[in-house]
Amino acid sequence: MDPGNGSDILPEELTASVESFFDTAPPLQDSSLISHKLQAFIDRNSKSSEGGGPVRVVCVTSGGTTVPLEQRCVRYIDNFSSGHRGAASTEYFFKAGYAVIFLHRRGSCQPYCRYLPEDSFLDFFELGEDSSIQVCQSHSTIVKKAIGDYQNAVERGQLLKLPFTTIFEYLQVLRMVAISMRPLGPYGMFYHAAAVSDFYVPWESMAKHKIQSSSGPLDMRLNQVPKMLSVLRKEWAPMAFCISFKLETDGNILLQKADMAMKKYHMHVVVANLLATYKREVIMVTDNGSINVCSQDEYSDVEEEMIKILVDRHSKYLEQYRIEIIGLS
Amino acid sequence: MDPGNGSDILPEELTASVESFFDTAPPLQDSSLISHKLQAFIDRNSKSSEGGGPVRVVCVTSGGTTVPLEQRCVRYIDNFSSGHRGAASTEYFFKAGYAVIFLHRRGSCQPYCRYLPEDSFLDFFELGEDSSIQVCQSHSTIVKKAIGDYQNAVERGQLLKLPFTTIFEYLQVLRMVAISMRPLGPYGMFYHAAAVSDFYVPWESMAKHKIQSSSGPLDMRLNQVPKMLSVLRKEWAPMAFCISFKLETDGNILLQKADMAMKKYHMHVVVANLLATYKREVIMVTDNGSINVCSQDEYSDVEEEMIKILVDRHSKYLEQYRIEIIGLS
């Protein structure tokens, strides 16, 4: 786990496609607000923690990005992701003392809301005779715990929620987050649980209006999204500890793909998972072997053990970093 | 508004593409449960209402359908739709005494939840000192009204919620709903507010596994979804009162497209709207002219006036139907 891995130079071709992506993307509407929030969050959390060392900050990305097919967007390609993994992981990172930037798809699963109903939360509540709001007896414990835990995290100032919908928004905000986390050096972590589109339609070549359905079958050509993980590792936040995910449907190619991602993007850990079993089973691939993690029963989260392992790896990474600094000085 | 409009014969080509769509679609997992719920709902609501006449039943479709691009679905095409229109309309149909089958996209906006927060409903609540759950003062009225109205609708047994995600689920459930509503004759109404995909990838020709991103740009060919509105009007529920929606981004073609839909699918009303203004402005196209409807201010719903007009048209339709029956006997 060489902290310097990220500092190589990007291939020219990638640099060109990255530049072209950002130059032609529709600009973020609220970038100055996001920038302001980020700065305040990093300032607050980069001061020493109670234990003496700096606070560790993790950016958890969560949910799927969309790819608009029309500029005035009616249709878009979406990536399957409930955001459950990111939401659960955020809760365990809090428990471990991390401050969390929760970069999430609008409307996806939120921390501490995982056990709440998806469609109609009204079913949880009823009106008392004095027209006070009461939680149905059967759900009372869950809802109370959710509200309590959530408010605790918010009050401690250790949760920053940033939403996205399209691939254009996601990558622009990710870049802002990564660059503001750069000063944290190895205390920063990226946990890329979001399902990010591999293909997109460049804004310039996109249909301006809704595609009409009267003219037979629809042919589409989608470009590859530039591999931003490389750019994050090499330019935006080269010292941060980086975890990416590899989701496949075919078990025969899973580990090979995870291994490739590990080497190609210089990740510290790649979490490999299959669509059919991702909720209860993952393989954590590192540069010195891989670890199988399963949830013990249907009531326990696989994320609990995953985050424990990652926090431990991050500690070792920081330790190694300190040794290198001392060795250099 | 000829009630008999729907009973023409379908063109052979359409019949073939409809059959092929349903034959190759992945079968519904819970079709017997849906069928049971539908039957119970129609039985309960087809008895006379308090006023003497049969209860009117409307099927409100709401939210967008998805088109999977892979059989083990990671990527899919989605249609923009929050489901706000369908949820708001459902509330006004209740007010007008209709029983509502709310055929909605999973996770989309629900009736009586429109003013509740999208992402984190936890912000609405706080724990009191006795660890009871309290609604923050600022939101108290809205939440109380939502819970009260919702429970009233549920208790009256006049709300049946049926969820869908893919175009395959949507069209299969819609067919079941339409066929079970057929016995209601002209007392049934269809209000097609859902954003239904125009294109799809037939299940058989779909990639089995996740499409790999390493092999350059992605070329896709999508087939047209058979025009099921015709089938609904002509075969599934020929006597029902039918409203469809036309959403466009280009104002220059909107009315022409709405008019075409009106004639092609024998709709009784087509609601034409533009993406940029659909929340506050619609044009209701009928066979004797069109009506512009706007919301009066930012606090009022355009759906209130829309539903008033539709209920009135539906009454006239029923009246005409009764005259024809008497005329025939």
UniProtKB/TrEMBL annotation, chains A, B:
Pfam families: DFP
Protein known as: DNA/pantothenate metabolism flavoprotein C-terminal domain-containing protein
Coiled-coil annotated residue ranges, if any: none
Gene3D superfamilies found in the cross-reference section: CoaB-like
GO BP annotation list: coenzyme A biosynthetic process
Domain DNA/pantothenate metabolism flavoprotein C-terminal: start-end pairs: 184-302
Domain of life per record: Eukaryota
Similarity comment text for this entry: Belongs to the PPC synthetase family.
Single annotated GO MF: catalytic activity
